[in-house]
Amino acid sequence: MASGGNGSPAHVSGELFKMMAGIDMIHVPYRGEAAALPDLLGGQVQVMFPAASAVAAHVREGKLRALAVTTATRSPFFPQVPALAEYLPGYEASAWYGIGAPAKTPADIVAKLNREINAALADPALEARLADLAGTALPASRAEFSALIAEETRKWAQVVKLSGAKPE
Prior knowledge:
The chain is mainly alpha-helical. 46% of the residues lie in helices and 2% in strands. It is built from six helices and two strands, in the order βαβααααα. It has a two-stranded parallel sheet with strand order 1-2.
């Protein structure tokens, strides 16, 4: 199981799969996802849990076979590819990005930033660009984003702890 390095999203996504499926795979860490891709394409490693954007072109060109997406449901970018949760109920591993501000930022500034960011995420041009990268926008309130951070922190802390993963 290739990954972009110890603790990378591909690594912990694979560890979650191993735990939930009750299987073992040897973790082969690389110095970044880009370094692992040639060995995946060449068959030196058998599986990887990469970001969709990193492999979308290879899948479309038939150079890689997508076995499943790690989102909770099928991806609109690869509708023919099943979600891993269809075979392993409850499995979900998605990378996400957010924008933060210092803790003492005035509430009115935070509210304005949230409104403007959510408006930008609703822009069709940005949605199209994200789609090109096999991504989707997830507009949210400050409270919703805070809840996501707390939930994801608990989930992945447990995966790291149970896997025994250590930083290099």
